[in-house]
Structures are given as C-alpha cells and as structure tokens.
Amino acid sequence: MSMRVLLIEDDAATRGYVARGLAEAGHVVDTAADGREGLMMALDGGFDLLVVDRMLPGLDGLAVVRALRETGADTPVLVLSALGEVDHRVEGLRAGGDDYLVKPFAFAELAARVEALLRRRRPDAASTVLAVGDLEMDTARRAVRRAGVAIRLQPREQRLLEYLMRNADRVVTRTMLLEAVWDYHFDPQTNVIDVHVSRLRAKIDREFDQPLLHTIRGAGYMLSADPPAGHERPAAAP
C-alpha cells in the first residue's frame, strides 16, 4: 500500500534513515526538520500519514498535533519520542496522536505501525488508485493507464509519476523531486531530472491530444489536466 507520508524529525540521521526506509517500502515521503515548517506542510494537506517527533525546535511535536487537530484534520499521526513512560504515552495520545513509538526503535516495528495506520485510514482497494484527467495509476498493482491504454514504466519513472500525481495541480520543484524520488539531499548538478521527465512525458503525453505533464518556467513541473499559467509547451516529437 503506497501512500504519501510527512516525516517531521529534527535529527538529520534519524530523518534520513526513516525517510529512506519508507521510500524503499514504496511510500512517497516529504520531510520537515522543525515543528513550524512541519505544521505548515501538514496544514497544506494531501498527506495520508504524519510521523512526528515529539521534541522539535520551533514548535514541539505535540503542539503540532494539537494545532492540526484543532483544524478538524483527521490525518493519522504516529508520534516518535525518547520519552517512554506511561504518562508520556498517554499525553501523546491525548494530544491527538494515533500511535506512539519510543526511541530507539527497530525500523521493522515503525513500518508495521505505519502500515496498520494506513490500513485503518484507507481500508478499501479503491484508495490505491490515483487519477489525473484520464491518467490512472493503481499503486498496489503498479499499473498505469491513460484513456484505457496500458503504459509501461521503469521503476524510477513509476516513482516520479506517483510523486507528481500525489502533488497534482501543484508546482513540484527540482529539490522536491531530488529528495522524494532520488533520495538526494543535495543537487548533483546533472540533468538526471530532465532526462527522466522527458522520458515520462514521451510515455504519458506523446500519443495523446492533451498534455498532462507541464514545465513551469523557472519553477519546476506540474501534472495537471488544465494547462497552468507560465507553462512551457514541450518541443514537438521528431
């Protein structure tokens, strides 16, 4: 079951370790390093699950969860904390957390808890289907179709398309793609993104009248059924 996860964790080593593990499990992972940034991202919506460290700079984890719950959002939250006493766990759950995992933890246990929360959130098979216009992806079966026509993608193209679909109608920057799809936390100064976007565009757009994958000049890319302002029309295929 592939879902979009927001990980809010200030420790770089833990953040990288957990993000890599969740990405390897097939999830699309966004990260934040402090409470205020994490809350802003969470309020922006679109996440199936939040993994929140309890002790964060700027705004502590429980404050993030309380603020989120005050808006009426019911996104499942897994709280991570080095504070493992019963009172601490109870406090975390009462703040609005759905589960509480004490550090240090085995990644296998975190992954199992994540899967359990996601099953509780989306128990139906239909939830595994993403759609943008006439483009559909079944994330459970790793199947992509456009207007009923099956499209074969390489694993990296699959991850790229899934990330774009989960962020449909939003500008996705190079940095976001490098971190979410390639797990780079720096710019390798190569054209790897351009090459993969070009290959993906050829597969999902070239044989169809309406383009879905748009280049936003000076900003990044957007997957949308409606041409956004500022998009660059790709060159015609030879």
End-to-end distance = 39 Å
Number of strands: 12
Domain tally: 2
Question: What oligomeric arrangement do these chains adopt?
Answer: single chain
Parts with pLDDT < 50 across at least 5 consecutive residues: none
The CATH superfamily of the largest domain is identified as: Response regulator
Structural class: alpha/beta
Name of the CATH class of the largest domain: Alpha Beta
Number of helices: 8
SSE pattern, N- to C-terminal: EHEHEHEHEHEEEEHHHEEE
What is the makeup of the main sheet?
5 strands, parallel
The gross shape turns out to be elongated
Give Rg in angstroms.
19 Å
What strand line-up does the widest sheet have? 2-1-3-4-5
Task: Describe the fold and architecture.
- It contains 8 helices and 12 strands.
- By secondary structure, the chain is of the alpha/beta class.
- The protein has 2 domains: about 5-120, Response regulator (Rossmann fold, 3-Layer(aba) Sandwich); about 125-230, Arc Repressor Mutant, subunit A.
- Helix 2 (about 35-45) runs parallel beside helix 3 (about 60-70) and helix 6 crosses helix 8.
- The longest helix is centred in the middle third of the chain and has 15 residues, at about 105-120.
- The mean pLDDT is about 85.
How is the topology of this model organized?
Blueprint: E1 4-8, H1 12-24, E2 28-32, H2 35-44, E3 49-53, H3 61-70, E4 77-81, H4 86-94, E5 99-102, H5 107-121, E6 129-132, E7 135-138, E8 143-146, E9 149-151, H6 155-166, H7 174-180, H8 192-204, E10 213-216, E11 220-223, E12 231-232
Helix pairs in contact: 2-3, 6-8
